[in-house]
């Protein structure tokens, strides 16, 4: 399952308008139901022998008390690294992961999304291309590639199809702070 803001629909003017006006997965409006069919992170870690079922139950109880994501708690407790979490979530969600250290952030790619949108949703554009049907596609690194609202906002702002990629949260925050600086705001904003 490839997460994309737009799945391939029959090429009619009506379906093209539907694709541009909303987020669709597998030809249907995104509602998150596909997320219920994925293996759970905790179950994957128990199966891999990283934690016991008892430790998982304890972390889930702790999660409810703190409001933090389970993955965040697992990394904080040193069970796995942030990179390992990213790779596991990539596998779980069938979304490509990217190491932002190797991305060439050009002015053209960064100008597609404003810094405030990047900060608000903790995401950063990493690649832009036009597909065989001449439709623009923007690849965006996110720590939560299931955040449909964030993808919708990016799609609406950029007027592109959006494909999420997953990256470690610390790398995304570092890239945002490095590339969306105050100096950049004054250079890229219209006079």
Structural commentary:
- The termini are far apart.
- The chain is elongated.
- Helices cover 47% and strands 13% of the residues.
- The protein has a three-stranded mixed β-sheet with strand order 3-4-5.
- With 191 residues, it is of the alpha+beta class.
- The protein is built from ten helices and five strands; from the N terminus they run αββααααααββαβαα.
- 28% of the residues are buried.
- The N terminus and C terminus are likely disordered.
Overall average residue pLDDT: 79
Q: What radius of gyration results from the CA coordinates?
A: 18 Å
Q: What overall form do the CA principal axes indicate?
A: elongated
Structural category is alpha+beta
> Low-confidence spans: pLDDT under 50, at least 5 residues?
1-35, 186-191
Instruction: Summarize the helix and strand pattern as letters.
Output: HEEHHHHHHEEHEHH
- Give the distance, in angstroms, between the N- and C-terminal Cα atoms: 44 Å
Residue share in helices? 40-55%
Widest sheet: strand order? 3-4-5
Q: How much of the polypeptide forms β-strand, as a percent range?
A: 5-15%
Largest sheet: 3 strands, mixed
Give the number of DSSP strands.
5
Number of helices: 10
